[in-house]
Structures are given as C-alpha cells and as structure tokens.
Design a protein that fits this description.
- It is elongated and about 50 Å long.
- It contains 2 helices and no strands.
- It has one domain.
C-alpha cells in the first residue's frame, strides 16, 4: 500500500501547481505540473506491472 500513498502524495502536490497554472497563469507551475504528471504516469506503470506479476504468481 505504500505505492498508493506515493500516488496520493503526487496528486496532492500536483493540485497546487495546477491551480497556479490555470487560475493565475504561472507558466513555471505548468512545467512542474507536467513533470509531476510524468512521474505519476511512471509510478502507475510500475504499480500495474507489480500487480500483474503478483497475479501471475498465484
């Protein structure tokens, strides 16, 4: 479940940058948001592979 908490932490950190980018027009926040989204995508893929491996072990 620690990976789930990593996902939640990434989403929580993303919220502030998304707000700054969309509501305040801060372009640097947009760059940070894109990086965080890429990290989230990478983590999600790792979790998918882990789930698949555990499922196939049974």
């Amino acid at each position: 479940m620690s990976r789930f908490h990593e996902v939640k932490a990434l989403v929580d950190s993303l919220e502030e940058d998304m707000d700054k980018f969309y509501d305040k027009g801060n372009k640097t926040a947009g760059t940070r948001a894109r990086k965080t989204l890429q990290d989230l995508k990478k983590l999600a893929q790792e979790i998918r592979i882990d789930i698949q491996d555990k499922k196939n072990e049974e």
